[in-house]
Amino acid sequence: MEAGKPWRTGADEATILKTDKPLKFGTLSLEPGTYTLNTQPGDKQWQLLVGKLAKPGQWGIPYNESLEIGRAPMAVQTAKTPAEQVTISIDDTPKGATLRVEWGTRSASIPFTVG
Known about the structure:
Elements: E1 16-19, E2 23-25, E3 28-30, E4 33-40, E5 45-52, E6 68-93, E7 96-114
Antiparallel strand pairs: 1-4, 2-3, 2-7, 4-5, 5-6, 6-7
């Protein structure tokens, strides 16, 4: 993972998000469908990079910028517990949910709404 460069945020095949409902990450709106998820790490903020899935089994690298749909800022903090493997989780919140990506001592998160 290198600051300022897209990171596949997983291993091997592209990490995907499949939704049957519209989602909104900041100003980035997604219709129901299947999307790839990447991140771009930074010192104080990360970016969530959402892209089109070109084909089933699509490989996670190299990053294909032509498939990118949009980006949304993620807050970064020190993880409560260091993660040896990349961990992606969704936490329910009163206003919707939060997508969290943790690896090593870093935890990047972004709230989102459904509907």
